[in-house]
Amino acid sequence: MIGYVAVGLLGLLSLSIPVGIVLFLLGFGIDQFFSSFPLIKGLGNMVWSSSNSATLVAIPFFVLLGEILVRSGVAARTYSALDKWVSWLPGGLVHANVATATMFSATSGSSVATAATVATVAMPQAERLGYDPKLFSGAIAAGGTLGIMIPPSINLIVYGFLTQSSIPQLFLAGLIPGLGLALAFIIMTALICMARPHLGGERRVFPLKEMVGALAHLLPIILLFTVIIGSIYNGWATPTEAAAVGVGGALVIALFFGGVSVSMLGESILGTVKVTSMIMLIVIGASFLNFTLASAGLGRELDAFLTGLGLSPLGMIMVIVLIYIVLGFFIETLSLMVVTIPIIVPIVVELGYDPIWFGILMIVLIEMALITPPVGLNLYVVQGARKSGHLNEVMLGSVPYCLMMLAMAMALIAFPQIALFLPEALR
């Protein structure tokens, strides 16, 4: 049955059918051909139970928060400010791409939204200053992936919802790996540009007065992140309530910079409805698919397959990592998460691993999927913001950063405390 499901999934996706619909179609197919019970009769209850959760209300709030910051012009001001602080490094403005993506990851919760934000404001600068298009666009695509690692992350919220794990603990666990990846991207960029200086463009040094003045555009984002995360960890608000507070904070920031208008609010709300609808369709469709897969015995089949390999727990984890890397080439990231979590996570827990740790490892592997063809969403988002050039340039530019993500995954396996240190210290 595993083979039939995999072929059906890839075949339907190749027809450009929306992912959420594909998940429902696979569920219907499994019900018809592999189940002796009429599972479709449970569809109504499954749709209701998978969407009737206060935890999921945080998703539209975090999406709206990001939409407000982008459409009010706060993103462009943040990018300009970070340019003044990091462009003296080998690689120049490329570091501003990573730094801006890191800051917006700490508020938007979405990788695609982060990549789109940075690409929109950065690409004109690349063409004007003569940067290598491959490295410049690759850094944006990779930096955008941090949106699902650095809290607050929509994907971590979904993982916590599906595994009944503590979302605040997941947010804490993602902080050090997320910031570590951002630092690794900056180091990788500097090393590449030290070896081949022509790729990084001109290194620019700004007067100290300008650098200090630019902090005025960075402090509101830092304050917003502190309010959101601080309210969660201090027990003042749930993740959902903190997301609502974040939306209010984003509106205050936008008002301060004069970026609020009726049209901006309308566009932000419309964008939020589109993104949230897509996410919820995938979550509900995946819940129904997982219900049919479990009822048809796929979980037992996969468990028996992995157990039959006779590997040690570490060997099993390496096989699971390989499975995610391969599936990441073909399946959209959120879909990959919600389809595999109910099957893989119980096996991982049975092996004795911490589900919080595995959630962070999974997110790193999902990040890789965002910048690997043919389904890497961030590649297409960045290419869409470019006025010329081929998608291959973005793909090639992402390769060094993809290797850094693989190195982070191996580091998490070798040293689990990278993810578990903060949750255990503050528990």
Structure at a glance:
The protein has 427 residues and is mainly α. The protein has helices at 2-14, 19-33, 43-51, 58-71, 74-86, 94-108, 111-129, 133-144, 154-163, 167-195, 208-233, 239-256, 262-296, 298-308, 313-328, 333-350, 355-370, 377-385, 391-414, 417-426. The longest helix has 35 residues, at 262-296.
List the helices and strands and how they pair.
Layout: H1 2-14, H2 19-33, H3 43-51, H4 58-71, H5 74-86, H6 94-108, H7 111-129, H8 133-144, H9 154-163, H10 167-195, H11 208-233, H12 239-256, H13 262-296, H14 298-308, H15 313-328, H16 333-350, H17 355-370, H18 377-385, H19 391-414, H20 417-426
Helix content: over 70%
Number of domains: 1
List the uncertain runs.
none
- The structure class reads mainly alpha
Major beta sheet summary? none
Quote the beta fraction.
under 5%
Number of contiguous helices: 20
Give the N-to-C terminal Cα separation.
42 Å
Question: In angstroms, what is the radius of gyration?
Answer: 21 Å
How many strand segments?
A: 0
Instruction: Indicate the multimeric state.
Output: single chain
Q: Globular, elongated, flat, extended or rod-shaped: what is the shape?
A: globular
